[in-house]
Amino acid sequence: MSALTFAVKTSLQHSINCSALTPDALAGKTVSEISDIKLAHGKNALRVNDVFEVSGNDTEHIVFKNASSKLDYIGANMVSGSISVDGNAGAYLGFGMKSGDIHCLGNAAAFAACNMRGGLLTIDGNAGDFLGAGSEGSRKGMLGGMVLVKGNAGDRAGDQMRRGLILIEGNAGDYCGSRMIAGTIGVLGNLGAYAAFNMHRGTLLLKNRPQLHATMQDCGTHTLPFLSLLFKSFSTYDTRFNQYNAQRVQRFVGDAAYSGNGEILILSN
Predict the structure, then answer these.
(1) Would you give the distance in Å from CA 217 to the centre of its chain?
(2) Which of 10, 90, 126, 264 might form a disulfide with 72, Cβ 3.0–4.6 angstroms?
(3) What average pLDDT does the segment 161-172 reach?
(4) Could you tell me the residue range of the domain that residue 156 belongs to?
């Protein structure tokens, strides 16, 4: 069996909703049935075969070829299997994902891993704003799973995050970890302004100290042996984080303006 492949064959004027094209949703369907599925495209709907050249028959392994930022909701709510995005992905990549594996070889637009519950999402390029955050109007961000970003992330990464792990090898924008409830965000590059703004709990694990606002309290330098176990847990993943084994950190707590008990750990060089 070969992977079920959706190769984009036409230029899209509007974004298209790909949430129907997940391994669990397509299980047991023939190529003909899959080709007839309707996808939302602006105010209208297009059939799958109007947009994609469909080949292969293994619905547990899906590939999007020639992918662009017009393909929204790839892997939304998926509970099994794997998806590979050969190119860029649109907004809401891995939205509500519960299990499985998504690998984007390019960049992802805003709200990647939004409302994510489980599974592994890897982005080889950059991620847009609100990575691992909650959707519009939601009070709950990412609730589980793991996100690896090889490039940079935009503003509000982990906004209202409640569980899970986000590892960003590049830089992160403003308000990283804003309104964070729990979970861990690691960043090897630099952060923008207002990191941990209104943070309740959770951990920001940083290589470089950002410009912190006055309501983040310096608790001094500590040796935290549990960090060795944390870094060891990264060893099975393709990430630069598995090259670290530091235990010595400078620790900040806050956001004190919100009675928060979140922490920022700055790794010693």
Answers:
(1) 29
(2) 90
(3) 97
(4) 110-267
Mean of the pLDDT values across residues 137-153? 94
52 inside domain: no
Helical residues (DSSP H) of the chain, grouped into ranges:
23-26, 31-35, 48-51, 226-233
The answer to whether position 105 is within a domain reads: no
Residue 38 domain-assigned? no
Give every strand in the sheet of 71-72, ordered side by side: 44-47, 38-41, 16-17, 71-72
Task: Work out how many domains the chain is built from and give that number.
Answer: 1
Domain for residue 211, yes or no?
A: yes
pLDDT in tens, 56-81: 999 999 999 999 999 999 999 999 99
Q: How far is CA 158 from CA 56, 137, 168, 231, 246, in A?
A: 36, 15, 11, 20, 23
pLDDT at res. 10: 85
Assign 44 a pLDDT band (cuts: 50, 70, 90). Answer: confident
Whether the pTM exceeds 0.85: the reply is: yes
